[in-house]
Design a protein that fits this description.
globular, mainly alpha, Neurolysin, domain 3, 498 residues
Length: 498
């Protein structure tokens, strides 16, 4: 009974992917109507009383001992009933309105970003914020969340409260800025060679070679170009990823591709036997993000990784990288910078970008700020966190696609995923002996096997905190993340931070 819902969701992913990549610009209005129609169909199937009654009966019969359901069967019921609760909370017209407005807004955002004009995007964003407040109120009326923002956050995360998130973020607010200040006071590694001219076709070639070595199955994946790097799954276990190229920046597209390939490996690793079941999906967005950040920020920026791949990179760009050793490259790609763009940021400063966005999202939903004042509010917070003035909207409030897609409450999962990825990285260092990676390069297979066993193979059988505890032996905590940061930057900057 769940398969039609999953297939419709995959179809929406296909439509969204096409809109991000190959759809002609003139089809935006039609595409928004198509997506709205499918959103209504998914909603109708999810709230169907027949489905709800069957699941309710199963719960009662299992409780009374008439059935002895297995763990995965109970988890399937739990996941399905959770989805039903969220769907039943929302009127069908609100679901359709959000789907249509976000599809239209994505096109408007792309044009506004290109023109560097927030005013062009503001009316569309105002509609999305208004509809998101309606959605949050409907969720809370159904008993979902203790605040409007938590209600929206719960749409993306199961098993961790906003109070727990706030405690983690408070630790980062206390410990990250002084660490950043210390690092920024030091002599930085030279990274000037990263900003030479690197032809797009050669960047694409080396990106594909690296993510192939990571383990991507190209029979069930493809890499394309979009305004904002992304990953989606138009079919079960068959993801599609996008990146973007800057011919004067070697690592923008490269690390975007590695990041999205980490997402894709998770999708390809989901168990085939659970396909189209509620628990066949990934375990929330925080865990999904942990897979991409593991590959991009931790393994992908580690020295053992580039001890393998730097030769490939050097042979592709011998003139640009002349005189640059693998250790130089490793230090350069980890150089801390107070840059404007989240997706280009280094592991040290990345979470400052998320702290800023979470603050803005809460103000949006709590009606503490008008849409017209959002750019100034963004710039004020950026100055607070980075001590840098934002030069324009394109490098400020217009840089992310998320709010045009209605993904308000989503950004905290990025920091949670970052923290989980550090915990997974520590476990892999201890269990797979990462220091030997440069010698035994087929250890990517061992790493993928470990991630598959600990994360991918479970689908969403467990909630986020449960899965992290099973994989690492401890709950989600910023402690390991901060320790890993200090260890990495001690090495990069030749200073003892631990």
């Amino acid at each position: 009974m769940w398969k039609p819902i999953a297939l419709l969701e995959h179809t929406v992913d296909m439509l969204n992917w096409d809109q991000e990549t190959y759809m002609p610009a003139g089809e935006g209005e039609t595409r928004s109507e198509q997506i709205a129609m499918f959103a209504e169909m998914i909603h109708q199937k999810t709230v169907d009383n027949c489905l709800f009654d069957i699941l309710s009966d199963l719960i009662i019969l299992d409780f009374k001992g008439y059935y002895n359901l297995k763990i995965h069967e109970r988890a399937n019921i739990r996941k399905a009933m959770r989805a039903i609760k969220f769907a039943k909370a929302l009127p069908a017209d609100l679901v359709a309105a959000l789907a249509k407005e976000t599809s239209l807004a994505s096109e408007i955002w792309r044009e506004a970003r290109e023109k560097n004009s927030f005013n062009d995007f503001a009316p569309a964003l105002a509609k999305i914020i208004s509809l998101s407040r309606e959605k949050a109120a409907a969720f809370m009326a159904a008993g979902i969340g203790t605040s409007p923002y938590e209600a929206l956050f719960f749409e993306y995360e199961d098993g961790i409260s906003i109070a727990e998130v706030d405690a983690i973020f408070d630790k980062l607010r206390a410990e990250l800025p002084p660490l950043v200040k210390t690092i920024m006071s030091l002599e930085p590694p030279d990274d000037s060679f990263i900003f030479k001219h690197y032809p797009k076709e050669l960047q694409e070639k080396v990106s594909c070679e690296i993510i192939t070595a990571m383990g991507i199955d190209w029979n069930r994946c493809r890499l394309d170009v979009a305004t904002h790097p992304s990953n989606c799954s138009p079919a079960y276990g068959s993801p599609r990823i996008t990146t973007r190229y800057d011919e004067n920046n070697l690592i923008d597209a490269l690390f975007s591709a590695i990041h999205e390939a980490g997402h894709a490996l998770y999708d390809q690793g989901l168990p085939a036997e659970l396909a189209y079941q509620p628990i066949g999906a990934a375990c929330g967005l925080s865990v999904h993000e942990s897979q991409s950040r593991f590959w991009e920020a931790w393994l992908g920026r580690s020295y053992p990784f580039w001890a393998i791949f730097y030769r490939k990179l050097y042979s592709t760009f011998p003139e640009q990288l002349s005189g640059v050793a693998d250790k130089d490259f490793y230090r350069a790609i980890n150089r801390a910078k107070l840059g404007f763009i989240r997706t280009d940021s280094d592991p040290l400063t990345y979470n400052l970008h998320i702290l800023l966005r979470k603050d803005i999202e809460k103000a949006m939903i709590n009606d503490n700020i008008s849409v017209d004042n959002l750019p100034a509010f963004w710039n004020e917070l950026f100055k607070k966190y980075f001590d840098v003035e934002v030069p324009d909207d394109r490098r400020g409030i217009l840089q992310d696609i998320h709010w045009s897609c209605g993904l308000i409450g989503y950004f905290p999962t990025y920091t949670l995923g970052n923290i989980i990825s550090a915990q997974l990285y520590q476990e892999i260092i201890e269990n797979i002996k990462l220091r030997y990676l440069a010698i035994y390069s087929n250890n990517f297979h061992a790493i993928n096997e470990w991630l598959h066993k600990k994360i991918h193979s479970h689908g969403s059988l467990y909630k986020t905190q449960e899965l992290v505890k099973l994989a690492t032996g401890q709950p989600i905590s910023a402690d390991v993340f901060m320790a890993q940061l200090k260890e990495r930057y001690s090495d990069v900057y030749n200073i003892r931070l631990i």
